[in-house]
Known about the structure:
The protein is of the alpha/beta class. Helix content is 39%, strand content 16%. The strands form four sheets. The chain has a six-stranded parallel beta sheet, with helices on both faces. Helix 22 links the parallel strand 19 and strand 20 (531-536). The radius of gyration is 24 Å and the shape is globular.
Amino acid sequence: MRMSGAKALVESLEKERVEVIFGLPGGAIMPVYDVLLDSKVRHILVRHEQSAAHMADGYARASRKTGVCMATSGPGATNLITGIATAHLDSSPIVAITGQVSTSQIGLDAFQEADMIGIASPVTKYSFQPRRVEDIPVTVKKAFHIASTGRPGPVLIDLPKDIQMDSAEVEFPMKVEVRGYRTDYKPDPEKIGLAAEILANSERPLILAGGGVILSDASEELQKVAETILAPVATSLMGKGSIPEDHPLSIGIIGMHGSKEANRLIYEADTLLAVGCRFSDRTTGKLDEFCPASKVIHIDIDPAEIGKNRCVDLAIISDAKMALEALYRALTKTLTEKKDTAWSRKLKEMKETNNVKTENSGRDLTPPKILKELRRVLPPEAIVTTEVGQNQMWASLYFKVLKPRTFITSGGFGCMGYGFPASIGAKTAIPNVPVVDVAGDGSFMMTENSLATSVTENIPVTVIILNNRMLGMVAQWQRLFYNRRYSAVSLGDVPDFQKLAEAYGAEGLRIGSVEEFSRAVKESLKSEVTTVIDVPIDPEENVLPMVPAGYSLKDVIG
């Protein structure tokens, strides 16, 4: 079948069942946009390419599908990089398509030329630059295969303009193989048996669940294992939602801004079962004092993560779901039911004590109260995205997530400006559930122009701005560790977020109490346009508890 490169690309995307692309056109990708006009693929026009990548990322995390974003060459392509790097650190499957100058001009510093293969290689699983029309279908097939299998991640297709315009005979492959690329990591039965024996004989077992549990849909298996051995379950930030956070064994997130229960219990555990996590510095604190009394069993699909940051006693390279299924079977063969232990009683006492302290906070409009009220108002299946900074940590501490894939945040890259476009991507993927972005004023301002996309494309979400007129997390560190020497953190009184929202055609609300907040959220969920709720908070409000950088998790303050 003879067709242009642009046509071959779009038909290849249709064969991958791509329903939506988030993008912004320009000169070097115009042939593809021309073909898109006649395709079934919905194109959502963004106002900045960074947001296109975040939208594709949010779409992927909410839907279990691969998100797609697109931009032109040069600055359009490089603007995608922040979003691609965010997806890379959080193992989110996206395919980014960029236009490139014609092959005859590559390397000549042509107008809007950038070496995207070189720039993107460190933050992608793989990057392609097809130089023949015939190669486009197999390239697209490989890109989607690599992005969505094994440890997921972003893949780049950089397509020169002349290849988009040239024509050739093409064939569309049904499947592809990538030499040297493995995805079939099944658990070693002997190691599973050994892990079961260690856990069954442990007096103080603890499970640390990471984003890999959510990516492999292993939440049910995780819960079964935890209940069998009566192990508290802590999560990394990316693993939040891998177990319902109202479950008696859930102890919240661990690390710098983790819960007191998680940070203290992991220090006392005698066995740590870590699943689908990479022992990042934000999770472990001072590494040589991280769970010092524990044997460590690490399950991960990526062999490169084994022993990279933390030495382990037993490594199981496997998909999390398959490993936990096998571990549960092995445990139930030999383990008699544990009804109560000194370890589980300690967990219960710690949770009850901490709940009382939190409820006794004095002021009315505080982030913990706002986020607990948000949980009360939203249905369990509602999706919450976050920006980055204090808002993110307050949400991780006080908003209990009840289902996997309903808490979407930039964990590894910590990318300000992520949450709002990610919420638009999530709402596009799952339009029948409420989607709420918990924002800080500084982070929201980085991609606020996505209000134009949400309004013109009819993708209504709710944005809650915890507004302290500060770069809050930086201010908190300056307050606690720099003797209150505030440097470049005050954002002033602009903009008026209520008027800003209205200027884009969205709803804008400002509230002054928890009761008003509750009513505003309920109204926003019925609205047919995006609603921005401005929540003024005290600029001196800290996110506590926290572990200072470089300290052990037992050195929690607050």
